[in-house]
Amino acid sequence: MKKNVMFIAVLATILLASCSSKKELLACQEEYKAVKASLQSAREELAGKNVKIESLTEQLAASKKAIAEMQKTNNTLQQNLAQSLNNASQNNISIEKLVDQINESNQYIRHLVEVKSKSDSLNLVLQNNLTRSLSKEELKEVDIQVLKGVVYISLADNMLYKSGSYEINERASETLSKIAKIITDYKDYDVLIEGNTDDVPISRENIRNNWDLSCLRASSVVQELQNKYGVDPKRLTAGGRGEYNPVQANDSELGKQRNRRTQIIITPKLDEFMELIGKAPENE
Which residues have C-beta within 8 Å of that of residue 166, sequence separation ≥ 6? Predict the structure, then answer.
């Protein structure tokens, strides 16, 4: 009897120890899953930040290039002025007439600067309004830039479309609705939707290649903006550039990820912009 009691006690102890070990194993497994998910999230966040850094670097390079171009233009104007003075001296042109020509040219230059400043200011306001309307999560997959008077909104393909498809997914609806509101508010701008892909070949039913895919994706966004959010279709243009407009080399997954994008390009209407500039002064 005592032996049976002792045997039962020992067996119970073993079972309890076994149960305890299983609980610890399950706890470790759950902890491992949590750590793995956290690591994946950190990797995705790091990839997003790397894309942002590269984008900012590109903007900085573009700004430096614009400054260099302005300095070059200024040097050209100074050379032209010196040449005009020289020509005036050689051709006995009156100083009063030369001053009038210079003043007329300066007035036109100031007018151009005012037009550009107005355009740049509107673009920056547009950019800021859109940036403020997007959440932190959306900003990880949406890149907004202003380059040479044009607003570029670049959206990742995995945010917009179902995998390997041109169908808009539900996840993109909220982001597109915010972009559509900005487009609707700025009525004096035209909008080009431009699809881009990486260089990985695709061949599916009704999609022959990356040209087809990029065009179909752009068309899907255009129709979504028109049919779901009421953007005037007369302001919209859809186009695809396939794999031939990469922003990075396709030799890495990050490069391919950046190249698989759809750009919403917002520009001032050309006819109205030319009216603002007016007619250049004629040289007598």
Answer: 207, 213, 216, 217, 219, 220
Q: Facing residues of 151 across strands?
A: 146, 266
- pTM exceeds 0.90: no
Closest-CA residue to 157 (of 167, 147, 144, 145): 167
In which residue are the tokens 């740049």 written?
A: 120
Using a CB cutoff of 8 Å and minimum separation of 24, what contacts does 224-227 make? 224/168, 224/176, 225/176, 225/179, 225/180, 225/183, 225/191, 225/193
Q: Where are the beta strands (DSSP E) in 50-159?
A: 142-147, 150-156
Torsion of CA 257, 258, 261, 266, to 10 degrees: 160
Residue with tokens 């070990």, as numbered in its chain: 21
Q: Give residue-wise pLDDT tens across range 94-148.
A: 656 666 666 666 665 554 555 455 555 556 666 777 777 788 888 788 888 877 7
d(CA 163, CA 128): 31
Backbone angles phi, psi at 129, to 5 degrees: -60, -40
Q: What is the DSSP string of 231-251?
A: --GGGEEEEE-TTSS-SS-SS
Cβ atoms of 166 and 216 closer than 8 Å? yes
**What gap in Å lies between CA 66 and CA 200, rounded to an integer?**
34
Distance CA 256, CA 198 (A): 5
Task: Give the tokens for residue 222.
Answer: 């255009």
Give which of 110, 178, 166 is closest to 141, Cα–Cα: 178
Unique residue bearing structure tokens 């005012």: 114
Q: Running DSSP on this structure, what letter comes out for residue 260?
A: S
